[in-house]
């Protein structure tokens, strides 16, 4: 398994589907830029309800960041030549819509950031220093 984080743009419209066993899933394509200047298309599938819902929100061309299990594949193109393929089972998704939603959740009615609550958990304490002879 390859655990991956990719960022790019939605290509086309994500589709909600139902498997033969009745479970729902969403499919989409993401266009991911590469260092060579070309783009790699990634086939995305989401099974978790929150990710399915979030994946249906963006439109063609909207920016997304996806995390999940990446699988490298190969397929025969129309020219009969093998081409590389990439599939991603998305476990997390970040879009401009989710960022706007999170910002609004932390603003008051006037759009100003809210002060931290008194009942918020305290930050975790740093781990103690180890005093041993191991070099790592």
Distance between the termini: 28 Å
Widest sheet: strand ordering: 1-2-3-5-4
How much is the radius of gyration in Å? 21 Å
Indicate the proportion of strand residues. Answer: over 45%
Mean pLDDT across residues: 83
Provide the domain count: 1
- Structural class determined from secondary elements: mainly beta
How many E strands? Answer: 5
Q: What features would you describe in this structure?
A:
With 136 residues, this protein is mainly β. It has a single domain, classed as Nucleic acid-binding proteins (OB fold (Dihydrolipoamide Acetyltransferase, E2P), Beta Barrel). It is built from two helices and five strands; from the N terminus they run βββαββα. The protein has helices at 49-56, 96-105; strands at 2-18, 24-33, 39-46, 63-76, 82-95. It has a five-stranded mixed beta barrel with strand order 1-2-3-5-4. A hairpin with a 5-residue loop joins strand 2 (24-33) and strand 3 (39-46). The protein is globular.
Per-chain topology:
Blueprint: E1 2-18, E2 24-33, E3 39-46, H1 49-56, E4 63-76, E5 82-95, H2 96-105
Parallel strand pairs: 3-5
Antiparallel strand pairs: 1-2, 1-4, 2-3, 4-5
Keywords:
single chain; 136 residues; mainly beta; OB fold (Dihydrolipoamide Acetyltransferase, E2P); five-stranded mixed barrel; 5 strands; globular
Question: What is the compact description of this entry?
Answer:
This protein has 136 residues and is mainly beta. Helix content is 13%, strand content 46%.
């Amino acid at each position: 398994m390859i655990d991956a984080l990719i960022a790019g743009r939605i290509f086309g419209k994500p589709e909600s589907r139902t498997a033969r066993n009745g479970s729902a899933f969403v499919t989409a394509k993401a266009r991911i830029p590469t260092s060579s200047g070309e783009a790699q298309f990634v086939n995305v599938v989401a099974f978790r309800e929150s990710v399915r819902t979030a994946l249906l929100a963006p439109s063609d061309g909207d920016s997304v960041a996806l995390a999940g299990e990446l699988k490298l594949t190969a397929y025969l193109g129309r020219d009969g030549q093998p081409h590389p393929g990439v599939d991603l089972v998305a476990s997390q998704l970040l879009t401009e819509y989710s960022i706007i939603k999170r910002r609004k959740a932390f603003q008051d009615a006037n759009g100003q950031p809210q002060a931290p609550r008194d009942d918020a958990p305290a930050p975790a304490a740093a781990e103690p220093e180890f005093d041993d002879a191991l070099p790592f």
